[in-house]
Write a structure and sequence with these properties.
The chain is of the alpha+beta class. The chain has helices spanning about 10-20, 30-35, 85-105, 170-200, 205-210, 250-265, 300-310, 315-320, 360-375, 410-425, 455-480, and strands spanning about 45-55, 60-65, 75, 120-125, 135-140, 145, 210-220, 225-235, 265-270, 275-280, 285-290, 335-340, 340, 400, 440-450. The protein has 3 domains: about 10-75 and about 410-480, no CATH class; about 85-130 and about 170-315 and about 390-400, no CATH class; about 335-390, no CATH class. It holds the Pfam family RepSA.
């Protein structure tokens, strides 16, 4: 079998491979497999079989085997959430996240619609300043003042978010803040519960008996390379979304508790090389009520869900270009040595990729290098900064939720899998049979990843068609 091409093949190479595939027979199966994985950028190749059997007699009612496929294998989607790695799979991930977040705001997917009447706020928590950067200043009234450098930057100006004085910018503090951002969020949720308890005249233990704090949050990179969090925070009864919180736990009480909890969060990092650093949230915070209904509402439930889902497929690519993979060597884990000798895979550098990229700004390069250098400090070894240097030190998940906020991504995938199974059984003529009379036996083995050059041409066409259909859909919705 021709080895998969990791990059876009030349047209001539792709056409030759398509002719080769056509000569194998059953050529219609090749585009069908590519369409089935929605043009996934780097699908997983499997070999094996799946057989549907009669549970009583053991008689095979239907058998699928990759031996009957022209290419001798089956393709399944990679499932990567990053848009920079796989636009197709990332769109599906974003769609699932949209459903998950929206269900927690307005009901559905097992969550009662009564959550619309619970106190709900949309919160944005930002990092502090580590030095002045290029960006637009505004007055409290919203009047634009321009940048500190004296210019007015356009939205595509590469200087936006970069330090005015790189020599004095606190790069170590910025990287450490990213590395501890998730811990700061965890402390924020703890203090939020304590502030709510104090506002209601209860102890934290008594609070758990009368209400529950539910949330879903998403991380987003600012242009200066620091993450900030957008979150939906909702108050429920003690058992979750089925019950209302007490009347005293109002929207105003929740809003004030968020503001007070943000101010209380402190986290100290002690390092022999850097000294003692105190990390906290930035001064800028946004807390807004989520409106359930009504056109022209400042913040609707659908808008919030769409806004959060948009960011779960992104990483630091907007800051570091296409550096979307770890830069440390996987063989030596960034140490540069194996068995007391230089690692042969990275030749002792500890890196499997350079710390730079052609379209990275100087600021982004310095953030990556700082994360790499801090990763060598023994007292910071637990942060795994070399592993996360391509993420500018951020080690957390891009989307998280509390246990009772809404459904789960796994549950959504189970529903989709069950629907596909039902569709397949209908196509095979098993729709009327009781599921308990059927059993599926299968065996699969990993073969590789990617496409052949000819398949890549087909996949590029599928991706282009799907992107065009999505664009037309959005244009249609915008015109309504």
């Amino acid at each position: 079998m021709t080895a998969p091409s990791p990059t876009q093949p030349e047209i001539g190479e792709g056409v030759r491979d398509l002719l080769r595939l056509a000569s194998l027979g059953g050529i219609e199966r090749v585009p069908a497999q590519v369409e089935r994985v929605r043009g996934c950028t780097r699908p997983i190749q499997l070999t094996g079989y799946s057989a549907t059997l009669d549970v009583d007699t053991g008689e095979p009612l239907h058998v699928f085997t990759t031996l009957d496929e022209p290419t001798g294998r089956m393709l399944v989607p990679c499932g990567n959430r990053r848009a920079s790695r796989c636009p197709s799979c990332s769109r599906l991930y974003a769609a699932d996240t949209f459903q998950l977040i929206r269900a927690g705001i307005c009901g559905g997917k097992g969550i009662p619609e009564s959550v619309r009447s619970h106190p709900r706020v949309f919160v944005t928590l930002t990092p502090p300043s580590f030095g002045p950067v290029h960006g637009e200043l505004t007055t409290p009234a919203g009047k634009r003042l321009g940048c500190r450098c004296g210019e007015r930057h356009t939205n595509d100006d590469t200087r936006l978010g970069t330090p005015l004085s790189p020599e004095t910018y606190d790069y170590a503090g910025a990287v450490l803040w990213n590395a501890h951002a998730s811990a700061l969020w965890a402390r924020f949720t703890t203090y939020l519960r304590r502030e709510l308890a104090a506002a209601l005249g209860l102890t934290p233990k008594e609070l758990r008996a009368v209400l529950r704090v539910s949330f879903a949050k998403v991380a987003e990179y600012q242009k200066r390379g620091l993450v900030h969090f957008h979150a939906v925070i909702r108050l429920d009864g003690p058992d979750g979304s089925d019950k209302h919180p007490p009347a005293s736990a109002s929207l105003d009480v929740l809003t004030q508790a968020v503001l007070d909890a943000r101010g209380r969060v402190r986290l100290t990092v002690d390092s022999d090389a850097l000294g003692e650093r105190e990390l906290c949230w930035g001064k800028e915070i946004d807390v807004r009520e989520i409106a359930a209904f009504g056109k022209g509402a400042p913040l609707t439930d659908k808008a919030v869900a769409g806004y959060l889902a948009k960011y779960v497929t992104k990483g630091a690519e907007a800051i570091v270009g296409n550096l979307d993979r770890p830069v440390r060597c996987p063989s030596c884990r960034g140490t540069g040595t194996q068995a007391d000798a230089d690692c042969p895979a990275c030749e002792g550098t500890g890196k499997n990729a350079p710390l730079t990229h052609p379209n990275m700004t100087r600021h982004a390069r310095q953030m990556v290098r700082t994360a790499w250098d801090l990763g060598a400090l023994p007292e910071l070894a637990h942060l795994n900064l070399r592993k996360w240097a391509h993420m500018l030190g951020f080690r957390g998940h891009f989307s998280t939720k509390s246990r009772r906020y809404s459904t789960t991504l796994g549950a959504l995938r189970d529903v989709r899998r069950a629907w596909r199974t039902a569709q397949t059984r209908a196509q095979l003529g098993f729709a009327d049979r009781d599921e308990t009379t059927l059993v599926v036996e299968s065996s699969w083995a990993f073969l590789g990843t990617g496409y052949t050059p000819g398949e890549e041409l087909l996949a590029a066409t599928v991706r282009e068609q799907r992107a065009l259909a999505l664009q037309l859909k959005h244009e249609g919705e915008a015109s309504q």
